[in-house]
Amino acid sequence: MEPVKKTCVFILLSFFLASGIYSQGTSSSIDSQGRSYIQGLESYRNGDWTGASLFLRQAVASPAYSTADSWYILILSEMYGEDYSSAVNDADYFLTTFEDSGLGPYVAYQKGRALHYLGQNDDAVIVLSDYCHQNPGDTMYPSALFWLGECFYDDYNFETARALYEKVVADFPENEKSPDAQFKLDLIAQREREQKLLYLLKMTGEEYLSSREEYEKQLREYQTEDLVSLRRQLNAANQRIKELEAGAASVKTEPLSNGVSDEEMAALKAKARQIQKLLDEKNGGM
User: Fold this and answer.
1) Helix 104-117 and helix 141-154: axis angle, to 10°?
2) What is the pLDDT along the chain (286 residues), one digit of tens a residue?
3) What is the rounded distance in angstroms from the CA atom of residue 222 to the CA atom of residue 24?
């Protein structure tokens, strides 16, 4: 229950109990709105937010019970019952109808929270910022700062959210929202560490890819150079074989007359075949 006006419902209910009206709730001396009002207060006291909202809605339909206190309790019932759309609508009615009520700032605060829960963070920021600007010394001010931080956090504006959380923790360490603000600061810090790690992993990956591409490029160059060298050797060997065979045919002498034995010629041809085989293998692997 909110710290401001948290005893409002108990004061009102105690009044009815003391006056004996509550015990006469079934008598004709109390109209249906009066009985709904009393039941609404009782439901609120018991934490029955659905019942409180239902009965108080019936009660405020009567001018006699349509007071600032009644509407405020109805709005709180809707907030606790997570009926945020109704809370926003009733807050708008309250702020228009009870402009001079001292409960106005707290209704605005609840409206800001309800808008945040509805995902309307831009509108929530406007409402909560106005509340903080107009009520810097209010007991709900630290909580309003926290909910402002929540709006920015949900919209991924972590820098602004962190500044608000840090203010709650530093300036209002005893506030009930201070542990929640610290928890969110820890989450933001953890997220930043994860982002840095992902960045480092990305950079490492890019460097790896770059190194791999350079390695493959050099490998292709080496392979090309090897092929060129082997082709040169093959061409030289084939050319030498042709020259020797041509020389032997022109002089028509024994193989030894040209200075090359049959074994040397066979070895030269074998070398040429080996070079050709290497060229075929390399061409097939590229």
Assistant:
1) 20
2) 444 444 455 555 554 544 444 444 444 446 788 889 999 999 999 999 999 999 999 999 999 999 999 999 999 999 999 999 999 999 999 999 999 999 999 999 999 999 999 999 999 999 999 999 999 989 999 999 999 999 999 999 999 999 999 999 999 999 999 999 999 999 888 888 877 777 677 766 666 666 666 666 665 655 565 655 666 666 666 676 666 666 655 555 444 444 555 666 666 676 667 666 666 665 665 5
3) 103
